[in-house]
Write a structure and sequence with these properties.
Helix content: 40-55%
Radius of gyration: 20 Å
Distance between the termini: 55 Å
Order of helices and strands: HEHEHEHEHEHEHHEHEHHEHHEHH
Bound molecules: ligand AN7
Strand order of the largest sheet: 1-2-10-7-8-9
Strand content: 5-15%
Structural class: alpha/beta
Shape: globular
CATH architecture of the largest domain: 3-Layer(aba) Sandwich
Number of strands: 10
Number of domains: 2
């Protein structure tokens, strides 16, 4: 195989990852996602503020999970595992199914029945994973996945698997590489809290290596009906239309709080109405289609702008868009008017478009 060209986050950042020359690299060339300048949001935020969108929906399976999954599956193969398992609100199942397929190992996923977006379900199924829909929520699915993988020779590939966090931290390396240093603020959704943990770890490592002069302030957002960290207690029956972050008892709760406190940041909540509004603004004003959970970043940004949080600041803000909008086509269709049906002739079209 050619040594030239980009071949994923393990190849790119191997010196900063727990791999050796003996680690088999299972990759789909994930990572290297664009950091897109957001003109509309920057203007809204203020005169000396630049807002950027880290568009993680452009990873091979359409979400940030691929960064952690390439490493988790590669290490599982190195350790001679022949089966992996995860519980998932959707994106982890899609990613694990794809990477396990590539590795030629078995993948079992537990999903909350009826509560994952259509695109994600189609991915897990088409990649040949054993998909089990449980009559319970994500938190129940994760408890079961933990118990099963403790008792059987199946590798857990949820973000409790430390290799997931190690792989995901490469997103902060990319942001620093692009901007020349860390942004002043990072805004992101928080669900099971693996991602905020990973980003913070990555930023700290880059600073320690002298590759970034500073650390960002971490600003996390949960959905109002699924905000255990904000409320400081688990939520028994979490509810939000942002199904990806419909999580009531996050696995990485403690490290999310550490990221928040060490960075002097915050973890707050946004309502479903605010998420939907941000989802549409992003699509209409920036031309970027992200899934509702990702729009929680933008809803959070808008909330903070309104509060005057960035007032008189000169700063750069990175907003993480964790998953592609096509993951949840049903939500998009529900959020807009259906196309108008008209007769197939010249005149009807001209009349409709107002010329
Ligand atoms: C689009 O796939 O938990 O705070 O099982 O899919 O690291 O959990 C997904 C989470 C944000 C939250 N945005 O990240 C799963 C799963 C999207 C997501 C999150 C998820 P974490």
């Amino acid at each position: 195989m050619s040594e030239k060209g980009y071949r994923g986050i393990i190849q790119k950042y191997k010196k900063l990852l727990p791999v050796t020359d003996k680690t088999p690299v299972i990759t789909l060339n994930e990572g290297n996602t664009p950091l897109i300048y957001a003109g509309y949001l920057s203007k809204l935020a203020g005169k000396n503020i630049e807002v950027y969108l880290k568009y993680e929906g452009l990873n091979p399976t359409g979400s940030f999970k691929d960064r952690g999954m390439t490493l988790a599956i590669s290490k599982a193969c190195e350790e001679k595992s022949t089966a992996v398992m995860c519980a998932s609100t959707g994106n982890t199942s899609a990613s694990s199914a794809a990477y396990a397929a590539r590795a030629g190992i078995k993948c079992i996923v537990l999903i909350p029945s009826g509560a994952i977006a259509l695109g994600k379900l189609s991915q897990a199924l088409i990649h040949g994973a054993k998909v089990l829909a449980i009559k319970g929520n994500f938190d129940a699915a994760l408890d079961l996945a933990k118990e099963i993988t403790r008792r059987y020779p199946i590798k857990l590939v949820n973000s409790l698997n430390p290799y997931r966090i190690e792989g995901q931290k490469t997103a902060s390396f990319e942001i620093c590489d692009y901007l020349g240093e860390a942004p002043d603020f990072q805004v992101m959704p928080v669900g099971n809290a693996g991602n905020i943990t990973a980003y913070w770890k990555g930023y700290k490592e880059y600073k320690a290596l002298g590759l970034s002069g500073k650390l960002p302030v971490m600003l996390g957002f949960q959905a109002k009906g699924a905000a255990p960290i904000v409320r400081n207690k688990p939520v028994k029956d979490p509810q939000t239309l942002a199904t990806a972050i419909r999580i009531g008892n996050p696995a990485s709760w403690k490290t999310a709080i550490e990221a928040r406190d060490e960075s002097k940041g915050l973890i707050d909540l946004v309502s479903d109405a605010e998420i939907l509004q941000a989802y549409k603004i992003l699509a209409v004003k920036e031309g970027v289609f992200a899934e509702p959970a990702s729009a929680a970043s933008i809803a959070g940004l808008l909330k903070l702008i309104k509060k005057g949080y960035f007032k008189n600041k000169k700063c750069r803000i990175a907003c993480i868009l964790t998953g592609h909008g096509l993951k949840d086509p049903e939500r998009a269709i529900k959020s807009v008017k259906p196309p108008k049906l008209i007769r197939a002739n010249f005149k009807s079209i001209i009349k409709e478009i107002g010329y």
